[in-house]
Amino acid sequence: MAKHVFAYENQSGFRQFMADRLKTDVTLKPKNVSPGADTGLSAETLALLRAARAPEFALYDRIIAAQGHLITPQG
């Protein structure tokens, strides 16, 4: 058995994965969507955040390197 982790940005890949598994189309309707806003961080703040949450960013970087869909053995 494997564990599948998707990047949030890979919504189409996630939906296709679920459709394949469920043998039906998967349609998700946006809910609770925030209005667009500038949410950028300064380089200094981003560096502090990356240092404070290094394991989470390392996992995210692995997922992105795997084209947004990381498959790992579960056991």
3D structure, described in words:
The protein is α+β, with helices and mostly antiparallel strands and 75 residues long. It has one domain (2-28, 44-73). It is built from 3 helices and 2 strands. It has helices spanning 11-22, 43-52, 54-65; strands at 2-6, 69-73. The mean pLDDT is 94.
How large, in whole angstroms, is the Cα Rg?
16 Å
Q: How do the strands of the widest beta sheet line up side by side? A: 1-2
Whole-number mean pLDDT: 94
Tell me the major beta sheet.
2 strands, antiparallel
Total individual domains: 1
The multimeric state of the shown protein is: single chain
Uncertain runs with pLDDT below 50, 5 residues or more?
A: none
How are helices and strands ordered from N to C?
EHHHE
Number of helices: 3
**End-to-end gap:** 8 Å
**Tally of DSSP β-strands:** 2
The percent range for helix content is: 40-55%
Structural class: alpha+beta
Tell me the β content: 5-15%
**Which shape, going by the Cα principal axes?**
flat
